[in-house]
UniProtKB/TrEMBL annotation:
Compositionally biased tracts (Basic residues): 17-27
Protein name as annotated: Phage terminase, large subunit, putative
Low complexity bias (residue ranges): 1-16
Domain of life of the native organism: Bacteria
Natural source organism: Mycobacteroides abscessus subsp. abscessus
Amino acid sequence: MVAAARKTTTSTTSRSPAKRATARRPKAGAPPNKQDTPPWVGEWPRLTGRQEPKHEHSFAGDETDGDRCARFGHRVTKQRSLPWQWRTMRKILSRRPDYLWTHPDVVLVCTRQQGKTLILVLRILFGLFILGENIAYTAQRGNTSDAVFKRVKAIINSRPSLKNRVVSLTGGKQGFGEIVVRSKLGTEVTVQFGVRSGDKGRGLDRIDLAIFDEAYNLTQDEVSALQGAQVASANSQTIYTSTAPVESEHPNCHVFAGMRRRGLKKDTDLLFIEFAAPDPPKDALERKAAREDRENWRLAEPSYGVISKERDIERFYKTAVESREASKVALWEADFLGWGEWPADARFIDPVIPIKEVWEPLANYAPELVGQKVLAVSRTRDLARWAIAVGQRTIEGRVQIEIGYYQKATIGQVAAYVVRLVELWDPATIVIDDHDPAKPLAPYLKKLDVDVTLTTTGQIAVAFQGFVDAAMSGDLGHTNQPILTEGLEVAMTRELPRGDKVWDDREGSIAQVIAATMAHWGVLEFAEEDSPAALPSMGAGNPETTSSHLDVLGAAF
């Protein structure tokens, strides 16, 4: 079988001796090729950046089309590739013996301003005019999409041999552009440029090449929008490329992070290339020294000395440091050293609160409740669902929590539902995280004279730790609702700049967990007691459970 004949390579793949012997000799006046590289690859005296990536995972294949693409690019742009650009193009356009792509999936993680866009532009032009591919290029920002469109358009307009094949050329503003051409094969093909959305590319019946640029903010819905049309292609390829993300700043980096994990695990049919400096030290002072080490700049940036220059990197660094914001320094590290903050894989992380050992034994279906209730509202990041939790003390001094509402609804419907609960229970307050997507509910409720507490970042951190501590010590009760248990099974944490932890709501739907956490905190902060609360449990045992489920917090739930 063809697949069995291929093998994984983790280092630079050189051209075979036969191809080396047939390489076209440089023309007179071309820069000297000291390493016998072809004339479409330049020799750059100032180039000191490391040309080999920090990580590479690829399979052996015929890289002739990579050379054809680089040669074609040299002819139409009069620009020679840097060695790393040429090597990357060869890997991307490598073919198996059956002429299918060796790497139908490509992951390129590259530091900022290295010339990655040239690779994409040449891949688009080569695919469009030579291979006859339908192509969809998407970016996170409209100005990025427009810039790539204009660059492709300028190259086409500068070459009569390409311009004469254009059937139509539209857009190039506000994040959309489209070019239709007659390819070398005689077929009429299209390339679309645009800002990502859930319906991008749906007008194309077949997509042979999908490019997700700025993939640090790529969602699964945006990927799925193009996959249907890719199925219709006999030989489709997908390129994911970006600088390394910073998870705290890029909440939708999980798709790109998942593709990178596949590369690190040496997954089949995948090309993975990552340019970065050696891993940073864990000690803060040592990390600072490594961050300022010019040798690490050189190792992280393959175009160092030609496109990226020490002077510019240094002044950008000073700006980040002078901001006195940890997030700005983290972004600089990701952009110029490749030190991203990658999210962990939730499939292999133990729950914050052990489910079997801790959470399930806390189930209490018939508690004796005392004091005021507190409501808390949260909303999923995709704005699809709302979660409402209620908390109240038990006679033993624990806090009993329950999720009473978790469904799709309009903001008006949720406001009306909360008002009904307020009329029924007269809770001490309604708690909403000031940074939660549920925050727009607050003005609605305040107009209806409903007391709302918007929590600060510091209070959110206190609420998280208090919730976890209460569960671990047995000072919390619940009714063993599957929706809450399932949320806790996948919920992960993230660290704030000062080291405090909070629930990470950027992956998955854990609005129910956040609502429960805030309800617990609200009871401790605002609810009056009808009887004295007991001291925190010393771990002598778990609340008694019963086999029947009882809605303990009111008929409205």
